[in-house]
Design goal:
Helix content is 31%, strand content 15%. It folds into 3 domains: 64 residues, no CATH class; 36 residues, no CATH class; 52 residues, no CATH class. The chain contains 6 helices and 8 strands.
Length: 185
């Protein structure tokens, strides 16, 4: 599929599903307004090449249409869902014959699990963290600051070591600190 986000962005562009914005835009409300309008009009994903105050570009709305989700998954989401349901129905109850027949799908599932690596690509260049270099948006007028919306937040249970990955909106407090609020219950 895709090795990284850059590959996927190139794939979107090649398929007419990405529009580049080369003028400087403000991460305080402006990007959100532009992206919301584009979404409502059925426009492609947006790559803001110059974000005021940030050292990096920002891509938004990359999974905001069925077509872009299909490009990400390599097939229509309905087709993928049907394949998963069919697989689950076939392997219940499990038998050696059925497991052999479904070995390709079992291999795909097995290979999709998290893996430990010696050297991660994300660690190829190590610098002091500086959240202010990132294009973190102030999305809504009443927001208390800049927030990362739908990040992958990885937590570990301190008692049993089990891992959880969730999407929780996190607020940037300064160059090195973020915070989030969980509802317990």
């Amino acid at each position: 599929m895709f090795d990284n986000l850059q590959d996927f962005v190139r794939h979107l562009e090649k398929n007419g599903e990405l529009h580049r914005v080369s003028v400087e835009v403000d991460p305080v409300l402006e990007i959100t307004e532009i992206a919301t309008r584009a979404l409502k009009l059925g426009k492609p994903a947006l790559l803001f090449e110059k974000v005021k105050g940030a050292d990096y570009p920002l891509v938004i709305n990359i999974l905001a249409s069925e077509r872009r989700i299909e490009l990400a998954l390599g097939k229509h989401p309905d087709e993928l869902g049907e394949q998963l349901i069919s697989f689950a129905e076939k392997v219940m109850p499990p038998s050696p014959k059925v497991l052999f027949e479904e070995s390709a799908m079992l291999r795909r599932i097995y290979n999709s699990r998290p893996k430990n690596v010696t050297i991660a690509r994300s660690q190829a260049v190590i610098e002091q963290p500086n959240l202010s270099s990132l294009p973190i948006l102030k999305t809504w007028p009443q927001d208390g600051g800049h927030f990362v919306t739908l990040p992958q937040v990885i937590t570990y249970d301190p008692k049993n070591g089990k891992r959880n990955i969730g999407m929780y909106r996190i607020q940037k407090f300064d160059d090195r600190t973020t915070g989030m609020h969980w509802q317990i219950g």
